[in-house]
Amino acid sequence: MTEGPAYERIAALLRTAILDGQLTGRLPSLDALSAQHNVTREVVRRAVEILRGEGLVVTHQGKGTYVRVFERIVRRSPSRPSPQRWRAGHKIQDADTRIRRRTADVVVGDGPAPGFVAQALGIAEDEPVLFRSRRFLVDRRPVQLATSYLPLDLVGGTRIAYTDTGPGGIYARLAELGHAPTRFTERLTARAPRPAEVERLELTTAVGVLVFDITRYAFTQAGRCVEVNAMILDATAYELVYDFRA
Question: What is the chain's pLDDT, residue by residue, as a tens digit (246 residues)?
Fold first, then answer.
């Protein structure tokens, strides 16, 4: 076995057992695992914390730690926001989750534009914009936070200001207003989650836990940016796939 800290070696053994399907359901207690591997309880605790950070196990308070049964969400680009999809009345999220159970907590309001939003929308910093903040849950698991910012002079008082934007979502409504998006740019980084993101996505605070930080910009044919969407994805819940021509 590769040399290294004892907790990393135990984590590697447990990880292999989980991925091979040998370890399912509820994990043995910390005391049982420490006796089985002849290490201290603290070593096992740190090993399980690593697996929790990787999304392989989840701990339910008072019930124990379980192997997480969750099929990763395949987020395929650039086909997700295609006009064929939203013009037909489908939501972009449908491309990711299909028939899986999905719910969303939605908050809509207006407030000052953050600097990066103001720059993209071509307005003064702190000028009011419409924001749509969502928390998506798939199979009852929080997986994504997303906040869209749109020019208030363009969408204020329209269906986009409602929690339910109707068939096709934001982009279908923008098209009805004569500002259909025709081009998108996404910027992606991976980073450690911030405290508020840990709470809202119900993440562990273990070292090594990551989120995907994605910002999407939607442009019209005339080149105007009509939406900035700042998204935070639980990296253990997603597989990012990119299709492009050679």
Answer: 456 789 999 999 998 888 878 898 999 999 999 999 999 999 999 999 999 888 788 888 788 899 888 888 999 999 999 999 999 999 999 999 998 999 999 999 999 999 999 999 999 999 999 999 999 999 888 999 999 999 999 999 999 999 999 999 999 999 999 999 999 999 999 999 999 999 999 887 766 789 999 999 999 999 999 999 999 999 989 999 999 988
Task: Copy the structure tokens of residue 189.
Answer: 């980084």
Task: Give the domain range for residue 207.
Answer: 73-242
In angstroms, the Cα distances linking 167 to 97, 135, 173, 245 are: 17, 19, 9, 30
Place of tokens 């207006």: 110
Residue 134 within a domain: yes
Asked if the structure places residue 155 within a domain, the reply is yes
* Final residue before a domain boundary, out of 34, 50, 67: 67
Nearest-CA neighbor of 103 among 45, 143, 72? 143
Secondary structure of 205-227 in the HEC alphabet? CCCCCCEEEEEEEEEECCCCEEE
Q: Which of 67, 91, 114 is the last residue of a domain?
A: 67
Burial 61-78 (b: 16+ CB within 10 A, else e): eeeebebbebeebebebe
Residues 6+ apart with CB under 8 A from 218: 81, 171, 174, 181, 183, 184, 225, 226, 227, 228, 229
Cβ contacts of 104 within 8 Å, gap of 6 or more: 93, 134, 135, 136, 137
**Would strands 73-77 and 238-242 be described as parallel, antiparallel, or unpaired?**
parallel
Facing residues of 146 across strands? Answer: 134, 231
Asked, for residue 27, whether it belongs to a domain, the answer is: yes
